[in-house]
Specification:
four-stranded antiparallel β-sheet, disordered N terminus, alpha+beta
């Protein structure tokens, strides 16, 4: 590693360590009379801690030895909530819920055992949560006084968003069954509190027919129920009426990303049918309050992405980022739209050295694809290109400052950050484009962007590279095996054998491949045709691999098999394995090593 770092051409160049150190991120805003709270992840120590902003002061609450993170469904989310006088959080190490009073530095366990918890919410002296007991999931209510755990709902494969009405008499939640994912088909359920304080028989309010995905149920202060549904083609806010649900005035856009994690908040009802929400228009994020008559008050300011919305009578709170500013916790005045940056938002580079994203919309296959183009920060007329393929694959990239992208543009590479067909943010039809087409349309889009940018004279198409993590690693390997476009590629904990993934992966994604490729028994030939490991002899260019040894999603054996196949075929290939990492690297030293090593690998290819 030290030899690689020493090979940097300019000691003043933006280093991999600097890029990683700038990767501090925030999540899960919660607000109460005690202040605004959030979770902050710092790559330097790979830990997430809760911070509070109150009366103009910011303090860290999480005691030493704790890290706040849920692992329910492996991707977690909803890792803490606020009670009347304490923080309830999921501890990363043992996945149990702990209670920490606002005025105390110690925390005590509320739950014990080997179960996991996530999507925690406080309601009337109890913590509502999704409980994971090996492969069994249920909704539970845990009493704050004695830790008694009552089951609220069970029987479905997956649950999310347990939400209690303001009067405490109505409980709603989201549930879904295999083989569906929470972005393909879910149901919204409701139960009424009975005179004996038990819950009555649950009934379905919406969804369950296979063509609608619902998320983020919310009550307003009057007890009216809202949710986001994509039944009209985009995730938009709807409100419950006597005749069912009806749409509120909304932009023709997704008002939420795909719910890979629990506890998302991109939509909040206000009064009289008004709501606060974030969505994307022409590739840029919008934050606004929309009234029931359709009129809108825009709070976006200079930012281009908004997450984890919260509010009180004075402020709109959010996590926001822009093309020149990394993630920051903001307090935006509801009266005059002035902005206070409470945490984060400090760019690791001067503004003049930052490559700005340009919206991409280009033809590919029988349709079109989207993404963002970042010019190289050098004078080379036609620079080399690195194509970024996000994971998921039902996920998305955004036009905000990403230190990893700046690492490449500082070194003379242009970057194409793709939202290939199947990505979130462009409606249900675009998201569904990967149905049985994974390894085909995403690969088409990755290759088409090289031709498109080359025809525009923006890059040298003979020096194009491709990289991706997880599902993005699969697209990378497919592009290298089945197309002749790229000079080399990098797979970060990427899928090389979909059948092996289906046999070894966790419950949340156990049937995802059936949707992406087909039934492994019925469509075995299709799997064989799209398995990079079975076509390793068709890869004629160098490949570098990065893999966590504790990965439960893409197990290390997959990466080792693919690496061995390339080496046996005489292809220059490298593998770097990190003993303490899981699916996605968290330690700063490992992230920096991977980034610097990948760059050195590509330079070697270019230099011959």
């Amino acid at each position: 590693m030290n030899e690689i770092l020493a090979s940097s051409p300019n000691p003043d160049l933006f280093s991999a360590a600097q890029a990683v150190a700038a990767g501090t991120d925030f999540a899960e805003l919660n607000v109460s009379p005690a202040g605004l709270f959030w979770s902050e992840f710092r790559p330097q120590d790979a830990a997430s801690r809760i911070w509070r902003w109150s009366n103009g002061a910011t303090t860290c609450l999480t005691p030493d030895g704790f890290s706040v993170r849920s692992r329910v469904y492996e991707y977690g989310g909803g890792s803490f909530c606020l009670t009347d006088d304490a923080v309830a959080f999921v501890n990363e190490t043992d996945q149990q819920i702990y209670i920490q009073p606002f005025d105390a530095s110690t925390a005590h366990a509320l739950t014990q055992g080997d179960k996991r918890y996530g999507d925690v919410r406080f309601a009337r002296g109890q913590i509502l949560a999704v409980e994971e007991d090996k492969d069994v999931h249920r909704l539970v209510a845990i009493n704050l006084v004695d830790g008694r755990c009552d089951v609220l709902a069970e029987g479905a494969d997956f649950y999310a968003s347990p939400t209690l009405s303001p009067d405490g008499n109505r409980l709603v939640w989201i549930e879904w069954w295999r083989p569906h994912q929470p972005w393909t088909s879910t149901r919204l359920l409701s139960a009424e509190r009975q005179p004996d304080a038990t819950w009555g028989r649950a009934h379905c309010l919406a969804g369950g027919l296979g063509f609608e995905a619902l998320q983020q149920p919310r009550f307003d202060e009057q007890g009216r129920l809202y949710c986001l549904t994509d039944r009209a083609g985009f995730w938009q806010p709807w409100v419950e009426t006597l005749d069912g649900f009806e749409a509120l005035p909304a932009a023709k856009a997704d008002h939420a990303p795909a719910p890979w994690q629990l506890g998302g908040s991109s939509f909040l009802p206000l009064d009289d049918g008004a709501y606060l929400a974030s969505w994307s228009e022409d590739g840029m994020g919008v934050l606004a309050v929309r009234a029931c008559d359709g009129s809108m008050a825009d709070f976006s300011g200079q930012y281009g992405r908004f997450r984890s919305l919260a509010l009180d009578e004075h402020y709109i709170y959010c996590i926001a980022a822009s093309a020149t500013s990394p993630s920051a916790v903001l307090a935006i005045s509801r009266s005059d739209k002035s902005v206070q940056v409470l945490a984060g938002g400090v760019a690791p580079l001067p503004a003049e050295r930052i490559s700005r994203p340009q919206t991409l919309r280009y033809p590919s296959g029988s349709g079109e694809a989207h993404g963002y183009f970042y010019p190289a920060m050098t004078d080379e007329e036609k620079p080399p290109l690195v194509v970024f393929i996000h994971g998921g694959p039902t996920s998305a990239c955004y036009p905000v400052l990403d230190p990893r992208i700046q690492f490449w543009t500082q070194r003379g590479f242009a970057v194409a950050d793709l939202n290939y067909r199947g990505s979130t943010g462009y409606g249900r039809a675009y998201r569904q484009a990967l149905f049985l087409e994974w390894g085909v349309v995403d690969v088409e889009d990755a290759c088409a962007v090289v031709e498109y940018l080359g025809n525009q004279g923006l890059i040298d198409p003979s020096k194009a590279f491709i990289r991706g993590g997880s599902a993005g690693g699969y697209t990378t390997l497919c592009a290298l095996a089945f197309k002749d476009v790229f000079r080399a590629g990098a797979s970060l904990y990427g899928v090389s054998d979909p059948l092996a993934l289906a046999a070894a992966t966790h419950k949340f994604e156990a049937d995802y491949l059936d949707w992406l490729i087909g039934d492994p028994d019925v469509d075995l030939m299709r799997y064989r045709e799209r398995t990079p490991l079975l076509h390793a002899e068709q890869i004629k260019v160098p490949v570098i691999f990065f893999q966590g040894e504790l990965d439960a999603v893409v197990v290390p054996a997959q990466t080792r098999d693919m690496l061995a196949a390339l080496l046996d075929n005489g292809i220059p290939a490298e593998g770097h394995f990190y003993p303490e990492e899981r699916h996605g690297f968290r330690k700063a030293s490992n992230q920096a090593h991977a980034l610097e090593t990948e760059w050195a690998f590509y330079r070697k290819v270019i230099d011959g």
